[in-house]
Amino acid sequence: MSESFVWGTVAASSLVIGALLAFWVKISHKWVGLIMAFGAGVLISAVAFDLVEEAAAKSSGTGWAAVGLFAGCIVFFGGDRLIDRLGGSRRKDVTGAGAAAAQGGGALAIVLGSVLDGIPESMVIGLTIFQGGAVGIAYLVAVFISNLPESIASTSGLLTSGWKKSRVLWMWIAIALISGLASLAGYGIFQNSSEDTVAFVLAFAAGAILTMLADTMMPEAFEHGGKLAGIATTLGFAVAFTVHTIA
After folding, report:
1. pLDDT at 62 over 70
2. What DSSP character marks residue 25?
3. Structural domain boundaries of the chain?
4. Cα–Cα distance between 54 and 26 in angstroms, integer?
5. Radius of gyration (C-alpha) of the chain in whole angstroms
6. pTM of the prediction?
């Protein structure tokens, strides 16, 4: 059980690494957008080959995979709308505009938004450890890589808006630990679950991640990366698919 917490935290540790990169290296908005597009491609591959495909195989034609997919979409959409109202609508904005608007009480919205983005993918890590006895390397790598651009983009924006480095760093450390707990929950909660329930959970995570990509990641990637964002997204997909095939 402790293994699921460790691997969930490891996957989310790239949030902290991304923040440190943003501290030490001046990255242009265009490059952050392209990195974000690459991360989006990585997650699309993970959704297709590590979540939906597996969910469809486990549901055995009962329809629970389809139900889970749209349930994840609706739940994320509702949570994202709530966070928007709290001030976290552009939590991945690399220019600092979204972070500036989220000063004061709205700062909580940035934390909640990042947790909302990360919990579905983290729970799947714990679930796959329980199902297969070991962490799914391809999916773990996909989550790790996709977290980097999110952290770089958000950190760049927060620093531009005046946040202190220590405050940003501790925020990402806390979110990484929460992700580890989400992975632990994914391991423990579904131990006695049926195949259909597992299929629902995997598809639920897929629906939430896809909605997150469309609502937050990809618009920012295109806005700052321009037309090259399409190439970066395809490259990210290809890299993640290669890892999935090898693993």
Report:
1. yes
2. S
3. 2-23+32-246
4. 40
5. 17
6. 0.81
